[in-house]
Design brief:
By secondary structure, the protein is an alpha/beta fold. The protein folds into three domains: 15-81, no CATH class; 114-359, Type I PLP-dependent aspartate aminotransferase-like (Major domain) (Aspartate Aminotransferase, domain 2); 371-490, Aspartate Aminotransferase, domain 1 (Alpha-Beta Complex). The chain has 15 helices and twelve strands. A seven-stranded mixed beta sheet has the order 2-8-7-6-5-3-4, with helices on both faces. The chain has a five-stranded mixed beta sheet with strand order 1-11-12-10-9. β11 and β12 form a beta hairpin. α4 (99-111) runs antiparallel to α12 and α6 crosses α8. The two termini are 46 Å apart.
């Protein structure tokens, strides 16, 4: 490689550029799509950080490299990256690889446009609105607004900002000086982005009042009512409740009808963080888990999770029809949003968001939906529920596993109980010793490259595994492998 002639630039050389891209696409097909989705290959090729730095040769130099070197760089990046499309990657709330969504991502990246004006993104401005319209219809709204955001955390933050602006529109110009002490409410099982958003928006994390959850992780509406009363007694002004449909660890769904009743009584904005659970709306069998979501003012929904649309694909949906997004975030930049254009300037949607440049996130979902149809996506959701149920029943057959609770979603939480602890459940140090098992097994599986599955403590519970059944390519054989592999990895503990 060191003897190769450097190729300083492909600028202006269309033939060489095309040859490079064909070679790169070939590597991607072989190493990511074919090998990365094969159960016979490793999920990851673990290396310690210092070794990995050396293997990748990360330093940026003045001289360019040859095409052969660049292709080898691509191979190395893929070789040492985690294959999230692998059928044994259970680590996050996203996984799998949908070929139509990937095709959409490739086209999106190749066109390299920004989703702010019809002028430069005519196809995607129209497409985004159609996709958002479809998602809103599944929520239960015949009209409304929305936007694709760079992740569910930002969607949640937008909801807080919109609710604040609706209550106190002067805050856009006058800032925090225009505001009394505010209070927003969310479950103790909420995503951490709610507190981060409150800090980022200047409300402070103290403004977030944590509502108690029951033993299954669902918000308790009676405690929400109590917390609102306490906040008012302290001189704060309640303005928003953020409920969760599909909590990160337990996969719990808050009782939206009851929460909506509380919000209606107190005149509060109801936001539903359905980043994880929103895709359940596609299933006629399971959508009852989100009963009441149509009463929300805003909904966050990430199709890149359960639907495998690919990172990132995060929608913020609004019931509002008063152009609240634009009124709250718009700044009327005259070099982008000229009002005397030759087309309908209402199609220039960029002023709805805080960003200027905004990537196109609708094509991958649109193309996948075109290919699968709503029925195909519904089968995908139902299959995930069915496999989660199969895993639970198999867990119960083995003394090596203990369920944390019966799941209502596709998060299956459990402990692996090693041989040394199977007869010691009543011992004083049982919980402490059991909590040490998951980190050991996680290290072993990652170093071996056989699979990846997340673990965490939760409340008073010690570390347990959270299995996420989301990859549409999963089968019962993958569920069996998971259990067998954990038994192999932990047989000496």
């Amino acid at each position: 490689m060191a003897d190769s002639q450097p190729l300083l630039s492909l600028d202006g050389d269309a033939v060489a550029a095309e040859a490079l891209l064909r070679d790169v696409f070939g590597i991607v097909v072989d190493e990511v799509i074919r090998k990365g989705t094969s159960a016979s290959e490793k999920v990851c090729e673990w290396r310690e950080p210092e070794e990995l730095k050396q293997l990748l040769d990360l330093e940026l130099r003045n001289e360019g490299e040859s095409q052969e070197q660049i292709l080898e760089r691509c191979r190395a990046v893929i070789r040492y990256s985690v294959k999230t499309c692998h059928p044994r990657f259970f680590n996050q709330l996203f996984s799998g690889l949908d070929p139509h969504a990937l095709a959409g991502r490739i086209v999106t990246e190749s066109l390299n446009t920004s989703q702010y004006t019809y002028e430069i993104a005519p196809v995607f401005v129209l497409m985004e609105e159609e996709v958002l319209k479809k998602l809103r219809a599944l929520v239960g709204w015949s009209s409304g607004d929305g936007v694709f955001c760079p992740g569910g955390s930002i969607s949640n933050m937008y909801a807080v900002n919109l609710a604040r602006y609706r209550r106190y529109p002067d805050c856009k110009q006058r800032g925090l000086w225009a505001l009394p002490p505010l209070a927003l409410f969310t479950s103790e099982e909420c995503h951490y982005s709610v507190k981060k958003g409150a800090a980022f928006l200047g409300l402070g994390t103290d403004s977030v009042r944590m509502v108690k959850a029951d033993e299954r992780g669902k918000m308790i509406p009676e405690d929400l009512e109590r917390q609102i009363g306490l906040a008012e007694a302290e001189g704060a002004v309640p303005f928003l409740v953020s409920a969760t449909s599909g909590t990160t660890v337990l996969g719990a769904f808050d009782p939206l009808e009851a929460v909506a009743d509380v919000c209606q009584r107190h005149g509060l904005w109801l936001h539903v963080d359905a980043a994880w659970g929103g895709s359940v709306l596609l299933s006629q069998t399971h959508r009852h888990l989100l009963n009441g979501i149509q009463r929300a003012d805003s909904v966050a929904w990430n199709p890149h999770k359960l639907l495998s649309a690919g990172l990132q694909c995060s929608a913020l949906l609004l019931r509002d029809t008063s152009n609240l997004l634009k009124r709250c975030h718009g700044s009327q930049a005259s070099y982008l949003f000229q009002q005397d254009k030759f087309y309908d300037v209402a199609l220039d949607t960029g002023d709805k968001v805080v960003q200027c440049g905004r990537r196109v996130d609708c094509l991958k979902l649109w193309l996948m939906w075109k290919a699968q149809g709503g029925q195909g996506l519904e089968r995908r959701v139902d299959q995930a529920f069915a496999l989660a149920r199969y895993l639970v029943e198999e867990l119960k057959k083995r003394e090596t596993f203990e369920l944390v609770m019966e799941p209502e979603f596709v998060n299956v939480c459990f402990w692996f109980v090693p041989p040394s602890l199977r007869e010691k459940k009543g011992s004083p140090d049982y919980g402490e010793r059991l909590a040490k098992v998951a980190p050991i097994l996680k290290e072993r599986m990652v170093r071996k490259g056989s699979m990846m599955i997340g673990y965490q403590p939760h409340g008073t519970r010690g570390n347990f595994f959270r299995m996420v059944v989301a990859n549409p390519a999963l089968t019962r054989a993958d569920m069996d492998f998971l259990l067998n592999e954990l038994e192999r990895l932990g047989q000496d503990l």
